[in-house]
Amino acid sequence: MKTATRSSLGKKSLLAAALGLLLLTGLTTKPGSAEERAKDLFGAAKLPTVTAPQSFGFYSKGCFAGGVALPMDGMNWEVMRPSRNRRWGHPAMIALIQKLSRDAASDGWPGLLIGDISQPRGGPMLSGHASHQIGLDADIWLTPMPDRKLTPSERENISATLMVDEKTHLVNDALWKPMHTRLLKRAASYPEVERILVNPGIKKKLCDTVTGDRSWLRKIRPFWGHDYHFHVRIGCQPGSPACKGQEAIPADDGCGKPLAWWFTQEPWRPNKNPDAPKARDLMTMANLPKQCQFVLDAPGPESAEAATYRGDAVAVAAPEPEAPSPPATTASGTAGLPGAVNAFTTPEVGVPVPRPRPPAN
Ligand SMILES: [Zn+2]
């Protein structure tokens, strides 16, 4: 951005920017600069806003308010790479992960290992994904959860399983199990899930092997990477008028010509300019929806614990320790947020119960 733009900023927006910086922790860059990279500002936000959930902008260019954290463990999931602090999402996304973890378990998948969802207030990330910015994307490993609680060190260090041969771009048949197909089918079955990104080899495997109902295959979209994990994207949620949805996917199963393209040379040619800056390296606050400045500036909860999603109840604050309310157990899914105010009584959730070790692992 040119300096002319910077000097044309009104006092009010400078003040707002400065206020936002004060509210952030761990920030080392100078305050108030319109040239400041959005990824540094959003990457430094440790906690979400305490406001109604709302997504602003697009999956790869936006932010969100009212985020909640997926608990580190559930009966059927464990959060991986917790040091990245990317277990935050729109409550609808977090609820969906919990629902998928239960349904997948009943389908025979031993539990979900959860990769990146979003930063607490979304926005561009310091590293990794271009999307995941509005709280509506989540990465889930194609490796089943082991039958024990992983240690903090294991969560940071163990590797997911590479499912695809990097030369042929075909699935490794020794690794791919029917339960992988069932997991993707289950994830695609939810109306709020609009797309599931997988490596083209995985899409091809499904195209070649799924019999019976193939209608869900249209949601399974081939994309680079996604050979250790799959990526679940839900649509813009009610209450987010400034959320920009993605164009509708084609009605067919996507197993024809568009998939064949992935098995040509073209998508795999080396990047001619690998050192060119990525969008996230250039994006400033001026490139994001204007609401994102307010998202940065808004106050946060006292702790991550206070904004952790507990089933259908979200603990937002903790004013009355002597009269805690129990977690709500009625109502399903994403409605009725924020829920009960109960940062205190929620028991330690998610010590996984022993179960047979999965054959795939
Ligand atoms: Zn992803």
Bound molecules: zinc ion
Helix content: 10-25%
Number of strands: 13
Describe the global form. globular
Major sheet: arrangement of strands:
8-11-9-10
* Straight-line distance between termini: 50 Å
The tally of helices reads 10
Estimate what percentage of residues fall within beta strands: 5-15%
Written description of the protein model:
With 361 residues, the chain is α+β, with helices and mostly antiparallel strands. The protein is built from ten helices and 13 strands. The chain has a four-stranded mixed β-sheet with strand order 8-11-9-10, covered by helices on one side. Strands 4-5-7 form a three-stranded mixed β-sheet, covered by helices on one side. It has a two-stranded antiparallel sheet with strand order 1-2. Helix 2 (11-23) crosses helix 10.
